[in-house]
Structure formats: C-alpha cells, structure tokens
C-alpha cells in the first residue's frame, strides 16, 4: 500500500501528533500545533540529536542563545541585504509566485546563481504561463525579505525594529569567543544549538515540511583552514550515520552535492541531504563548508576580535566553519513517513489491514503500554505503570479487547505492550508483545525496566 501525505496527515491529526494551528478560529494557514504524542516525538528527536552531537561527541558543546538579537547581527550575516526571494505577481489573476520556482517547476531548469534579469528573460523566452490562470502577464521581479520584523518597547520606529532570527547559527557565531574562552576548548570544536527560527516563506506547504515557524538543530564546527574539507567529509558521514541509526532507509536518502554554480559565494562545498517524501525528494539537512565567512563578517561589523590563537604553534587565524543544519519538523516528517506502514495481515475470508508506525524505539512517543487483562487487575497494573513511568514515557490502557488495544498502540508506534493477567499476580511475570513481529514472550516484572532500556538503546 502507498504512503500518501493524506494518510500521514490524517494519522497525525487523528492520534494527537499534529493539529492544525488555531483551529477553533478557522485556523492560521501553515501553522501546526504538536499534540500529546507529537511533543513526545519531537522531544525524542531533539534528544537523539543532542545525544549524538553533544553528549557522545567530545568535540562539541551546547548553547541556547536568544531569538531576538542586536540588528547588527543581521547586517553582518547578510540577512538584511540578501535574505530574500524573487517574487512576481500575475497581473491577471493577482497570484504571487517565486520566479525561481516558476522556472524550475516549468521545465526543471536549475536557476541557482541566476540574476533576476536572467530569470525574467527566460520566463519571457519560454513563455512560461501563470500556473494559476495560464496567462503570461507578470509584473517585474522584486526581492522580498524573508525575515519577520517586530518592534521592541513602546515606540514603533526604526530604532526599535527587531527581527525574529531566521536561523540559530548567528547566535553561535556571536558567542564564539565567549565559548572558546570559558570552555577552553581548542580548535577544532563545535557548538550545537536547538531552537526556533522564523522565515516569512512565500510558498509554505506540504504539511510541516515548509513552515514559517520551525525549529533547527544546528552545529557550527570550527576548524583550522586547510583541514575544512576533511571535517566536511567527517560531518557528512556522521550525519548520514545518524539518520541510518534512526532506521531511515538508505534507499530513501540522497546526498546531493552542490555544483560550482549552485554554491553560495562563500561556500567551498555544500551537500543537501534529501529524503524521498510522499510528494517527492525534499531537502532534509544541509551540510556546508562556510569557510571563515561568518566570523569575518562579525569581526568587520562589530570590530571585536574573533580570531583564534593556537596555543601550540602561536599561530593566529580565523577558523573555518562546517555547518550541518537540520530542521526538527523535517526530521519529524521523515521519521513519520519512514515509520508509516499498512500491513495486510488478513486472509481472503477475513481481510485485515494493520496500520503500524515502526518508529525506532528511541523515538517512539511511548516506550511501552501497560494493559490489564481485566479491569479487576487495574490496581496491580497501575502499580506496574507507576514503576515504569519513573524511567520512561509509558501509556496505560484498560478499555476494550486486548486485540483492539494492541492495534491502538501499533498505530502510535509503541514498541511493546505489557499485559498484566491473572497469572501475573502469582508468578510475577507479564506478557510482552512486540509491535513489529507481534510475537509475545513472558518475562519477569523485575526485568522489565532493563528489557525496555535495552530496546531503546541507540
Ligand atoms: P529550502 O531550500 O528548503 O528553503 P534552505 O536551503 O533555505 O531550505 P537552510 O537555510 O539551509 O535551508 O536551512 C537549514 C535547514 O533548516 C533545512 O535543511 C531545513 O531542514 C530547515 N528549514 C529551512 N527552512 C525551513 C522551513 N521553512 N520550514 C521547515 N524547516 C526549514
């Protein structure tokens, strides 16, 4: 059976992973709220990233910097001058379009590096129509800045203008000297941060794939110039292994290296990790060698010293930066897409389709569900729930037949169901049923915590 966006969106909404934002007021386009299961999954995704990139990797340390930053930051980063999309309006039906998308969707031409004039000429030459009304009457292209603007304090003038950060990276760059000094880390080292970013996207959509408010998990890895391409390879491989370790299938992943024309002017190498979403290949993770561009820009704009003195060689240099930048929502959508399965486990006489989410146990919202076989066993089963809940997020369900309860847990990806029956009172054992194989085994209650801990290892 085919995985479609409709099915995935329906499951996410129906089971409390993701709801449309502000729904009782008719919604707010392209905003989403993460429900009880969604918030667990999201937190597990961020924890997994933090575990691999910070806790287990001695090269990196963490940071949580402010969303609102001194506006000079965005002058230095280039976001005030250059962070914009080329927009044009159809004069006939008044719809708005990104010129680059118009061309790419029309005949697949990659317009990376093209000027607005080149795009305009191409649209005229190929007589590319408005995708909405089919006419050929566009305005000129103008650049539209993607940063959300707001005001700080009581006066709304240019001096009080602030931007919501469009990436978390700049919070890391402006703290480079602080972190280096206080941790006494030697280059190479990295700074990792998870946090919200905001972009006033022109064409949001595909559920949570492109939204205006999202979370990023970014690493800025500082290394000595000349060693950067080696570290670029190191992080590329590290990132790929991270995805594979979360049971993302290799065949659904594509590492696309940017060509020379596509590369940003400051980047020596960039690879987009793409995933095969139900709507096609889409960027999941960008890994870029950003050279010394960001630190140099901040040195020039702030006048502060952000270079590094190598304590062994006494050499001074501005470190190069390797940046793997991953969206939490994009990994969420990837994980949900990858996990979704409809298994035909019926017979011709008795058709039966089992919807199951094969989440990696480390990511599953609940690690286990405790099911008393009969409501009469509620008391000891509750006690078992309390014991497990000290260690993991677990669910408890006593409503309906055991078979129905198993299916409910399959649909939300709970790796094991623990059934407490009348024998449990006597023998101190429970039946553990595996989500993926549906096999059952009897194990001692006292071994359960260790059993689950082993299962979610990652
Ligand atoms: P795109 O080409 O898809 O707009 P980008 O190249 O602008 O993305 P980056 O600026 O490299 O993206 O951002 C790094 C990562 O942040 C992306 O790989 C993606 O995972 C995530 N991301 C970027 N924009 C969005 C968005 N609007 N919604 C959700 N996630 C996003």
UniProtKB/TrEMBL annotation:
Reaction(s) catalysed (UniProt annotation): tRNA(Gly) + glycine + ATP = glycyl-tRNA(Gly) + AMP + diphosphate
Enzyme Commission code: 6.1.1.14
Gene Ontology CC, one term: cytosol
Alphabetic keyword roster: Aminoacyl-tRNA synthetase, ATP-binding, Cytoplasm, Ligase, Nucleotide-binding, Protein biosynthesis
Binding site for ATP: 199-201, 209-214, 283-284, 327-330
Cellular location(s): Cytoplasm
Swiss-Prot/TrEMBL GO biological process terms: diadenosine tetraphosphate biosynthetic process; glycyl-tRNA aminoacylation
Database matches in InterPro entries: aa-tRNA-synt_IIb, aa-tRNA-synth_II, aa-tRNA-synth_II/BPL/LPL, Anticodon-bd, Anticodon-bd_dom_sf, Gly-tRNA_synthase/POLG2, Gly_tRNA_ligase_bac, GlyRS-like_core
Coiled-coil annotated residue ranges, if any: none
NCBIfam families named among the record's database cross-references: glyS_dimeric, PRK04173.1
Job description of the protein: Catalyzes the attachment of glycine to tRNA(Gly).
Subunit structure: Homodimer.
Name of this chain's protein: Glycine--tRNA ligase
Lineage: Bacteria, Bacillati, Bacillota, Clostridia, Eubacteriales
Annotated gene: glyS
């Amino acid at each position: 059976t085919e995985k479609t966006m409709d099915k995935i969106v329906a499951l996410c909404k129906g089971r409390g992973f993701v709801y449309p934002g502000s729904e009782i007021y008719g919604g707010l386009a392209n905003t989403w709220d993460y429900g009880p299961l969604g918030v667990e999954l999201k937190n597990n995704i961020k924890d997994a990233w933090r575990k691999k990139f910070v806790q287990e990797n001695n090269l990196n340390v963490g940071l949580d910097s402010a969303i609102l930053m001194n506006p000079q930051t965005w002058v230095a980063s280039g976001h005030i001058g250059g962070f914009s999309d080329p927009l044009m309006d159809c004069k006939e039906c008044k719809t708005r379009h990104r010129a680059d998308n118009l061309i790419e969707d029309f005949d697949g031409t990659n317009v990376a590096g093209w000027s607005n004039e080149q795009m305009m000429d191409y649209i005229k030459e190929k007589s590319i129509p408005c995708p909405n009304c089919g006419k050929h009457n566009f305005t000129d292209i103008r650049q539209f800045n993607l940063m959300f603007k707001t005001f700080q304090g009581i006066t709304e003038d240019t001096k009080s203008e602030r931007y919501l950060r469009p990436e978390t990276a700049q919070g890391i760059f402006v703290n480079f000297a602080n972190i280096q000094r206080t941790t006494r880390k030697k280059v190479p080292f990295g700074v990792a941060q998870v946090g919200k970013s905001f972009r006033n996207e022109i064409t949001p959509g595909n559920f949570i794939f492109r939204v205006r408010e999202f979370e990023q998990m970014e690493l800025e890895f500082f290394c000595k110039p000349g060693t950067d391409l080696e570290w670029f390879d190191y992080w590329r491989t590290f990132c790929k292994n991270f995805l594979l370790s979360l049971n993302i299938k290799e065949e659904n992943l594509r590492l696309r290296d940017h060509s020379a024309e596509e590369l940003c002017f400051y980047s020596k190498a960039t690879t987009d990790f793409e995933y095969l979403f139900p709507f096609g290949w889409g960027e999941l993770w960008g890994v870029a060698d950003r050279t010394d561009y960001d630190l140099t820009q901040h040195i020039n704009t702030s006048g502060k010293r952000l270079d590094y003195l190598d304590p062994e060689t006494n050499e001074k240099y501005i470190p190069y930066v390797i940046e793997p930048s991953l969206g939490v929502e994009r990994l969420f959508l990837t994980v949900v897409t990858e996990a979704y399965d409809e298994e035909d486990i019926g017979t011709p006489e008795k058709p039966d389709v089992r919807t199951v989410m094969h989440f990696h146990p480390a990511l599953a919202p609940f690690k286990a569900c405790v099911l008393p076989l009969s409501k009469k066993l509620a008391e000891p089963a509750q006690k078992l729930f309390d014991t497990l809940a000290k260690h993991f997020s677990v669910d408890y369900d006593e409503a309906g037949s055991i078979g129905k309860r198993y299916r409910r847990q399959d649909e939300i990806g709970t790796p094991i169901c623990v059934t407490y029956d009348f024998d449990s009172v006597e023998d101190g054992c429970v039946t553990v049923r595996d989500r993926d194989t549906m096999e059952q085994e009897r194990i001692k209650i006292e071994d359960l915590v260790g059993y689950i801990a082993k299962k979610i290892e990652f």
